[in-house]
Design goal:
Strand content: under 5%
Order of helices and strands: HHHHHHHHHHHHH
Amino acid sequence: MRSVHLLGLGLLVGATALGATLSVVAFRWQTETLPGQGTTPTAQKAGAATASLAVDSTKGKATFDAKCAGCHTIGGGKLAGPDLEGVAEQRPHDWLVDFITAPDRLIAGGDPTAVQLAKEFGMPMPNVGVSRADAEAILSYVAAQSGGGGAAAAGAAASVLPPGNAATGRLLVAGEQRPANGGSACIGCHDVAGVGALGGGSMGLDLTHAHTRFGVAGLASILKSPPYPGMTEAFASHPITDQEVADVTAFLAQVDTTQEGPAPSYAFPLVGLGAFALFLGLMQVGQRGRSQGVRRRLVGRRGR
């Protein structure tokens, strides 16, 4: 009787071990052959979230490179705009989305942070037409890049430039030498102290101290990848060459150290006053001749 009990106990233990082995084999086959079928809902959600972040980060990189990299780095220092490394910890998420999509609206509305940034960097951030979905993707990419990898590309725009010639840069800025690809001269939209007998345009910023404001990397980045709508349109089919970027940057660096500030231009008002005086003089001469002719006719009629 005792041997029968021992035999039954052995069979029970063996059956339990065999069942456990089969369960483990079945589970491993299910998870390896049918991915996701053996995972819990929580694990599935975590995997989906990770995949979504990866997609957003990839999309964000493309948008960042196209619309943000001209003014910003991630861990490489400031250019025309602030370094964005860790910006998610510095500003509220909703404010960042609003600022990326419509910076002009925040500045016009008097948002203190937006106004302070425009004052600090000498110009407002332009509205480059980023949607809210793209802004979210950009922030995902910035968050993924923050803390590593960004610094290596910081000075890339400046380091790849050839040596610049300030004299050639002056000719390019003043429009006395045409760019290789037929682009417009800087003086058409910008003023630079000491350049141009009549001064420059007022559509863009004064460039006299642009070198101090943006540095070599910032200037090179703006010239090679214009972030502003007007510049983007102007250079879309007439890109500036690396040598021209180096020459213009060298000239602006020279101007920055030799000019105290933009010289007040009285040329346009003086030319305008001169033209107005000439116009009045011509009118006066014409009117005088006409008056004398009318006077002669009147005198002749009285004599009759």
